[in-house]
Design a protein that fits this description.
globular; binds tetrahydrodeoxyuridine; 26% helix
Length: 144
């Protein structure tokens, strides 16, 4: 568990607010995510489920897509708030890989119904992420 500063608290509140928009008729599990860009902007997303279950979109990826569409590609922090009194929900593997496309050093804050907050970085959450050989993130090919 960790303390949060004022900016992180704002981000958590944004994630909590967008969680109420989650479309989750199949699982009943609501997730809200809020990203803070290095420019200070906040971008939010919630999970959107589908009758074809595999087409369900996670909150984290929806927030990332919204950020990129508004021109933001550099991030400081993501706050993820899930519903339920159960254990805190870390982001799924697919979301970790998608977030990692935009850097490994940003902070991940995981929030549940109570006051507890878990803190990590993408590097800690997804060591050895997939990097396309010869692609823009291949260190031996030079970073773009
Ligand atoms: N979900 C997310 O939004 N983010 C994750 O990282 C994992 C799971 C959503 C997808 C689905 O709507 C519900 O949680 C249950 O899996």
């Amino acid at each position: 568990m960790t303390d949060v500063n004022q900016q992180e608290g704002e981000l958590i509140e944004a994630a909590r607010a967008v969680r109420s928009q989650a479309y989750k008729p199949y699982s009943g599990f609501a997730v809200g995510a809020a990203l803070r860009g290095k420019d200070g902007s906040i971008h939010v997303g919630c999970n959107v489920e589908n009758a074809s279950f595999g087409l369900t979109l996670c909150a984290e990826r929806n927030a990332l897509v919204a950020a990129v569409a508004s021109g933001v590609r550099e991030f400081e922090t993501v706050a993820i708030v899930a519903s339920g009194a159960g254990p805190l929900a870390w982001p799924c593997g697919a979301c970790r890989q998608v977030l990692a496309e935009f850097g490994m050093d940003w902070t991940v804050l995981i929030v549940g119904e109570g006051n507890g907050v878990l803190r990590g970085t993408l590097r800690e959450l997804l060591p050895h992420n997939f990097v396309l050989p010869g692609g823009p993130h291949d260190p031996s090919a030079g970073d773009a």
